[in-house]
Amino acid sequence: MSETRKRKTKNIPNNSISDKDKTKEGETKTVSPKSNIPLRVFSRAVVIFSLLIIVYFTSNDGAFKIFAKQNEVISGKGQIVECSSAYLREIDKFEGCFPKQCKRFVTDKVITDKEADELLMIAKKGLKYGGSSGGASILDLHSGALSMGQHFINFYKRSEGRNVFTEKDFTTYKVVKDKIKYSIGHYFGVNPEKIYLTHPTFFSEITSKEAVTVHDEYWHPHVDKETYKSFHYTTLLYLTDYNIDFKGGRFVFIDEKYNRTIEPRKGRVSMFTSGKENLHYVEKVTSGTRYAVTISFTCDKQYAIGDPDIRKFNNDL
């Protein structure tokens, strides 16, 4: 704390000084600083109290606000945010794709438990043939990309990939994708026929293993539109439960006053506009395994990708 500056001694004209204030002839007595003590004490008290307030709110969870708890079933919950200017300029080029508001939205009523369980089974069937050396692995059904050690392989090109996925698996994936796509149309006020599935769209498996490569460092704050040029709407479907199947791993939106967290719940869908208005990160998983699927959409048809299907899978093999 900076020290309070001492007041300079003031000379007061002789004719304004009483006999009690005089010492020697022609000299005056310095005014006592004691009259300023109450003000100085009050100022110090205010500073100390302010510091205590700052320490309190920066040393506990007061900087976070839970947006969606794992143990609650949410029909629909949204938060409107101010669109970034860059996002608006770009998306304005595409007819039928401009949102009523930029926002983030969470719902537990779009995907059924059965569909979530089937997707989790698909993820585990593929991921068991790979796995990152670090704590984050991905499986992309569209391209066949699968984490393997410190690299990625095309699972569809490998003999062990034969007969792993079935036509029913790909049908389930497509049904879920379509339900999420039409949910974006409904909740963001856009034409669902004007948004297209885009790359990358993938399953993720996150554990508490230490990162080995940059691909394992999933916890850094980022903006999806800056990471992936094609993204305009991002969605996440959680396949396991926070604090049951794993600990840590909450999804965090970074806002000016405090951060908002989403606790993963099986079948929960989180969707948001992909611009700077939704800066976010994922907390480090401290135990267990966190499964989710990222399903991304673009307004630019040149970046559209088709649904994965059994024919492409068999042809690649």
TrEMBL record:
Organism of provenance: Bombyx mandarina (Wild silk moth)
UniProt feature, compositional bias: Basic and acidic residues: 18-28
Protein name: 2-oxoglutarate and iron-dependent oxygenase domain-containing protein 3-like
Region Disordered, residue ranges: 1-32
Domain Fe2OG dioxygenase, first and last residues per copy: 201-300
GO CC field: membrane
Gene Ontology MF terms in the entry: dioxygenase activity; iron ion binding; L-ascorbic acid binding; oxidoreductase activity, acting on paired donors, with incorporation or reduction of molecular oxygen
Residue ranges crossing the lipid bilayer per the database entry: 41-59
Biased composition (Basic residues): 1-10
UniProt keyword list: Dioxygenase, Iron, Membrane, Metal-binding, Oxidoreductase, Transmembrane, Transmembrane helix
Record flagged with keyword Iron: yes
InterPro entries listed in its UniProt record: OGFOD3 (IPR039210), Oxoglu/Fe-dep_dioxygenase_dom (IPR005123), Pro_4_hyd_alph (IPR006620), Pro_4_hyd_alph_FE2OG_OXY (IPR044862)
CC cofactor: L-ascorbate
Keyword 4Fe-4S recorded: no
